[in-house]
Design goal:
heterotrimer, A alpha+beta, B mainly beta, C alpha+beta, A: alpha+beta, FAD/NAD(P)-binding domain, 7 domains, seven-stranded mixed beta sheet, 23 helices, 51 strands, B: mainly beta, Folate-binding fold, four-stranded antiparallel beta sheet, two-stranded antiparallel ribbon, 1 helix, globular, binds zinc ion
Chain lengths: ~1000, ~90, ~170
């Protein structure tokens, strides 16, 4: 019998009742309180995955998020979630998981042939081998590599349900990362002083090292109890701080306990966005491996992980275990194994002496001092180790489990993101971070402090230093529960690599060996960042946490420099794998973006409208489920022949008031507004400062110092900001008030030859006759008994009005107009018909106001003021915007009236069709004529009116002749609008 | 994420603001000619270090703010209204 | 942060009120504030709100105020406010521009941490204050009062916001 097994109960066990789960199709049983990893170990499952490159058999190496090997895909009701470390997955009844990166099965992996070929698969192999011929990359190499080298597969279907994650915003005085003795102590001091504190710990079991040391259990429970009583302290377990984003902002991902309600109906993850005035990074350390031949065999585990499985879950990682260490901390595992009756074959320590070795010998254990493990032997799993003792003799010891401890590296990723300075600690053989006091403090073992009692003291002083930075004076230190003293200890002796025959891994997830590191250096990739990218050392889900420094040390040795000079690769978010769904939170599906609804949205719905998304708006496209040209053209022709009403409430509406309003608008618009008479409207054209058109709309003068501007729907917010920016930066002393009234006013266009007759039925206090209310007039009036405004403006090219009423009254007014108008021939029309009508008339919208067209290009140059300053005045006159080969607005129609047009179709010289001269921007079937009409932006277009060009759309396999005409297909002399 | 101290609203998340580019330049006088305007519209120092930028507090008080920010560290030196005097620190880094 | 109170579940009501946007013209702020004080329409400082029997006045922009009162005939409230504050004020009726929602129940602060980026701790943000900010990607005005929160939502976003609130309130009950 060999392999891991459960030999008793553990501290983290919640009950001994069985929890059933499925792994790779087989049903197993674990206990409440297990992780998936501990449950697999308890069932003797030793191989849980295949490695990335060589497809070597791999077991569970760690007990936390630093796990490089035991990555699984979880299969739940909401889909497949790949790349979860089994060491962090809480075991739940009915959990289903699969191993990854094996094909067709874990036991028999065809691609493990890569292992046999490994001398042909050095670092950079993919880059070197698959370079030529280039076509083969796409067709042959990439699919092969993707199949062979992938981690887990992302679910190909849609994202998980919207409810699977929520985002929550938090504010705190101090964020404490890590709930070990240092973090808890800092939080206790700060919270006792009334500061708001959030403690976040990635673990389900709080307490860090104090949770695994029986002598510290009383202290740990007492302190957690004291913290729970502090009203300003929040302690979050299972919450990983995944990144620091500057200015005291942190992201933290909390895994929520799965409750009894049906899975998928409640959030499983919470993303906290935390804003903190200061922080305590008590992030602890990560144990590191030792690079030596065979260090990746199933049965090799880090010593600290083994202690956790034993104390927390009652699991022994082997039946005959050997510990190979260079430090004191790892002895605790061996001593605890022996105490619980799990045989320890020997402890091999590279050091000559340490007090811990004396304690182990006192407990009856064999310690080889000044010795090393030269190789771990085995084929499918650990079988034996070859030890070289102090005297230089080689011994082969038969074991089924090897515990490694190469020392402890402070978890610096978060500190590094916060710009921490790193200093080398020779007693830990690791870099230790120091934060700028304005950002926070590092405390505990992450701060290079050894021992739990020392960590408590360090946490307390970190809290005091924070109080000092926040200028709170010295905080009273509350009474702490009694704690045991730290045992005497010796420093570690650095031990990065035991050289020998066989692969010695520094990155188990990416199969990076010490030989790969040296190869990278030989080939010129000797900077630590270059080596990382060349070898993939330290990448992907585990970020190489257990071997990162080891690989860097190997590089330093190869370069002949001290490790302190090698530097550290830049750390970036995230600290661990984060599901996309957790980042999206609730902002997915219907809640991805807010929806803006017209005041008449419900009316449009009830009358059969098909809606279209226009930015955030939902606008009625056509009043039919049938969105074909037939229904659209029926609506449009009805406007041309009788009358139609359409909802234009989405237009931007801005009031500009004050004695300087006219002058200000003269600066904003290219054409003059101060000369506008009261009760009149004017078309308005705005340029950007570079001379390109920004937006167009109308300006109505409602009073001497009172103007109302409309903007296009899409540019409403842009124009408002444009006005406010120039008002605040260039006209700070002017008497100008800008007020956004876009949502207050509902606005309807009533258009068509019968529109005056229709409106006469509902408009009071205003004579609509041509004499008193001519084209471009504006006035207040009562519309269907409601005080509002009437504008005689036309976007359709017909006799038309726009009426505006407060949106609260939109439904009653609209309904009344239709009720009284219908007998006269009034019908509603949608956005598509509106577009047809404006294209025929030659009015421009977003397709033509595309951020590249000038007023001249659009045939609007004559509107621009020739004297006085306005935005864009100077640069609109620059030579580059004048004539030449610029794309200018024209109209066009196919010579064959059977031929349809398409947006984006290119226009070419049919004699010499080698270069595009322009393209179709908008097109529609004509309302009154046969065939299609369109607008185009055409090189030197104004001079080409009357020419024939070739229109080509290769995507549709179309090429046909078009005639270039004026953009005003309909009523160029404005007779209709003035009727 | 930047946290910007709006002089009216207090500290707010960057997401409440709209960025509007370089705040070190001033619009030339109307008769300054094309070259001056071209410089105003197109020429940007793009400094690695301290820089003044316009940020509009669109979701709050709608004030146009001049934010002096370090483009490498994101440290914010000052947030002021457009007419207030401002200084751009000399970067010792 | 107050814990959700199981006795008074989070709920919200649409209130039909009139909303008026008042801006002091350049250099006339003092005139407008004096006029308001003299005529029973006291105008608060930036970031604050004043609750009286007839109106709630709140300021989330310098020299600007939201006046919220009971619904009257179209533009009547605006005309009345304009009459009270005099020619130094630009008064714009926004009654149809905003929907007002009253969010009540002890759990509103905790619930709104989903979607609202402000610090809602009662020691920081409480009755007598007002803030313009973003909730669930929508720009809103928040005016807390002793039993809850008044929210002004731009009218065309209101349905979306209410759907979001319904979802939120449902969640806080479960
Ligand atoms: Zn602000």
């Amino acid at each position: 019998m060999s392999g891991p097994t459960r030999i008793g109960s553990g501290l983290f066990e919640q009950s001994s009742a069985p929890v059933r789960f499925r792994f790779d199709g087989r049903i197993y049983s674990g206990r409440a309180g297990d992780t998936l990893a501990s449950a697999l170990l308890a069932n003797g499952v030793q191989v849980v995955g295949r490695s990335f490159k060589y497809h070597r058999r791999r077991g569970i190496v760690t007990a936390g998020p630093e796990e490089p090997c035991a990555l699984v895909t979880l299969i739940g009701p909401s889909g497949r979630e790949p790349n979860r470390p089994a060491t962090t997955v809480p075991l739940t009844e009915g959990l289903v998981a699969e191993s990854q990166n094996r094909w067709p099965s874990l036991r028999f992996d065809v691609l493990s042939i890569f292992g046999a070929l490994s001398r042909f698969l050095p670092a950079g192999f993919y880059y070197k081998t698959f370079m030529w011929p280039s076509f083969a990359w796409e067709r042959v190499y990439e699919p092969l590599i993707r199949r062979a080298a992938g981690l887990g597969r992302v679910q190909p279907s849609r994202s998980p349900p919207a409810s699977s994650a929520v985002t929550q915003h938090a504010h705190t005085d101090v964020l404490v990362v890590g709930a070990g003795p240092a973090g808890l102590s800092a939080a206790y001091v700060l919270g006792s002083a009334g500061l708001r504190v959030i403690v976040a710990d990635q673990d389900a079991i709080l307490g860090g090292g104090s949770a695994l040391d029986p002598d510290w259990h009383a202290w740990r429970s007492a302190l957690l109890g004291l913290l729970a009583e502090l009203p300003t302290v929040r302690v979050w377990a299972r919450t990983t701080v995944i990144g620091a984003y500057g200015h005291g902002v942190y992201g933290a991902l909390q895994t929520l306990p799965v409750g009894p309600t049906p899975a998928g109906s409640q959030p499983t993850e919470k993303l906290h966005v935390i804003r903190a005035a200061s922080t305590v990074l008590a992030t602890g350390c990560v144990e590191r491996l030792i690079a030596l031949p065979g260090n990746d065999l199933p049965g090799v585990m880090l010593a600290g992980a083994a202690l956790r499985y034993l104390v927390g879950h009652g699991i022994s990682a082997g039946h005959r275990t050997l510990l190979f260490t260079n430090n004191d901390d790892a002895y605790a595992t061996a001593i605890e194994y022996a105490r619980r009756g799990s045989p320890i074959e020997a402890i091999v320590d590279v050091r000559e002496y340490s007090p811990a070795a004396d304690r182990a010998r006192g407990a009856g254990l064999t310690v080889y001092a000044s010795a090393k493990v030269e190789a771990i032997l085995g084929d499918r799993a650990v079988r034996a180790v070859r030890v070289r003792n102090r005297e230089g003799e080689r011994l082969t010891l038969t074991v089924d489990c090897v515990l490694l401890s190469g020392g402890h590296t402070p978890a610096t990723a978060l500190a590094a993101q916060l710009g921490a300075e790193l200093r080398w600690s020779s007693s830990m053989a690791a870099f230790i971070p120091d934060l700028s006091p304005s950002i926070g403090q590092v405390a505990g073992s992450a701060h290079g402090v050894c021992g739990l009692a020392a960590a408590v003291q360090d946490g307390i002083s970190a809290a005091q230093r924070i109080a000092e930075t926040l200028q709170l004076g010295e905080l009273a230190t509350p009474d702490f529960p009694p704690m045991p003293p730290d045992a005497p200890r010796a420093d570690l002796e650095p031990c990065w690599e035991i050289t020998g025959k066989g692969k010695a891994f520094v990155d188990l997830q990416h199969d990076v060996t010490t030989a790969d590191i040296r190869l990278a250096r030989r080939e010129g990739y000797e900077h630590v960042e270059h080596m990382k990218r060349y070898t993939t050392h330290g990448m992907a889900t585990d970020q190489g946490r257990i071997g990162g420094l080891v690989g860097n040390a190997v590089l330093a040795t190869a370069r002949g420099i001290d490790i302190t000079e090698i530097g550290q690769p830049k750390a970036r978010p995230f600290l661990e794998t984060v599901p996309f769904g957790a980042l999206a939170g609730e902002e997915s599906g219907d809640r991805f973006k807010p929806k803006r609804r017209l005041p008449l949205h419900d009316w449009h719905t009830q009358h059969g409208a098909t809606f279209v998304n226009a930015g955030l708006w939902l606008r009625p496209l056509v009043y039919s489920a049938d969105t074909s040209w037939n229904t659209v053209m029926a609506e449009a022709r009805h406007v041309r022949r009788e009358a139609g009403i359409t909802d234009v409430s989405s237009l931007g509406k801005i009031e500009v008031a004050g004695s300087d309003a006219g002058a200000f608008l003269d600066f904003i618009y290219a054409n003059r507004m101060s000369s506008l008479a009261m009760g009149r409207c004017r078309y308005g054209l705005m340029l950007r400062e570079d001379g390109i058109v920004l937006d167009d709309g109308t300006v109505a003068r409602l009073g001497k110092d009172h103007f109302l501007l409309t903007t296009t729907t899409v540019n409403a917010t842009v124009v408002l900001e444009h006005l406010e920016f120039h008002r605040q930066t260039l006209y700070p002393q002017a008497d100008v008030t800008i007020t956004d009234v876009g949502d207050h006013w509902a606005q309807f266009a009533v258009a068509g030859p019968l529109s005056r007759a229709v409106l006469a039925e509902v408009v009071e206090e205003l004579d609509l006759s041509n004499e008193t209310f001519p084209f471009m007039a504006a006035a207040g009036a009562r519309i269907a008994k409601t005080p509002g405004r009437v504008f005689r403006i036309s976007f359709s090219g017909e006799l038309a009005y726009e009426v505006a009423v407060p949106a609260r009254h939109a439904l009653s007014v609209w309904s009344k107009i239709l009720e009284l108008g219908e007998p006269l021939g009034l019908k509603p029309y949608g956005l598509d018909a509106l577009n047809t009508l404006r294209i025929e008339k030659g009015h421009v919208t977003g397709a033509e106001l595309n951020g590249q067209t000038s007023a001249n290009d659009l045939g609007l140059g004559r509107l621009c003021k020739t004297v006085g300053d306005y935005i864009g005045a100077t640069l609109a006159r620059r030579p580059g915007l004048q004539g030449g080969q610029r794309l200018e607005l024209v109209g066009l129609r196919p010579t064959d009236s059977e031929q349809r047009l398409r947006n984006g179709t290119h226009l070419l010289d049919s004699e010499n069709p080698t270069a595009s001269l322009g393209y179709v921007t908008s097109c529609t079937p004509a309302t009154e004529q046969v065939g299609w009409v369109g607008l185009a932006l055409l090189s030197a277009g104004h001079s080409r009116v009357g020419q024939r060009l070739l229109a080509a759309s290769p995507m549709h396999n179309e090429a046909y002749d078009v005639e270039i005409v004026s953009p005003h297909h309909l009523d160029p002399d404005n007779i209709r609008v003035r009727a | 994420m930047l946290r910007i101290l709006c002089p009216h609203c207090g500290v707010r998340d960057e997401t409440e603001f709209r960025y509007r580019g370089d705040a070190t330049t001033a619009r030339p006088a109307a008769d300054s000619g094309e070259t001056a305007f071209a410089r105003y519209v197109y020429d940007r120092a793009n400094p690695k270090g301290w820089h003044a930028e316009w940020w509009i507090h669109v979701a709050g008080c709608r004030a146009v703010l001049r934010v002096v920010r370090h483009t490498v560290t994101h440290e914010i030196h000052s947030v002021t209204l457009p007419q207030a005097p401002f200084d751009i620190p000399v970067d010792a880094r | 942060m107050s814990a959700p109170d199981p006795v008074s579940p989070l709920r919200f009501e649409r209130t039909t009120g009139d909303v008026v946007e008042v801006t002091a013209r350049r250099g006339r702020t003092r005139d407008v504030v004096y006029a308001g004080r003299a005529r029973d329409l006291p105008l608060p400082a930036m970031g604050e709100a004043i609750w009286s029997d007839t109106f709630v006045a709140a300021s989330t922009r310098p020299d600007r105020w939201w006046i919220i009162g009971p619904a009257r005939a179209p533009a009547e409230t605006a005309a009345r406010v304009s009459g009270l504050l005099g020619t130094g004020a630009i008064v714009v009726d926004q009654s149809s521009g905003f929907e007002t929602v009253d969010l009540v129940g002890a759990g509103w602060r905790e619930a709104l941490t989903q979607g609202c980026r402000l610090d809602l701790d009662p020691a920081i943000f409480t009755a007598g204050q007002a803030a313009a900010t973003t909730i669930a990607q929508i720009n809103v005005i928040m005016i807390p009062h002793p039993s809850g929160l008044l929210v002004l939502i731009p009218a065309t976003y209101a349905q979306h916001f209410r759907e979001w609130l319904t979802h939120l309130c449902g969640e806080s009950h479960s």
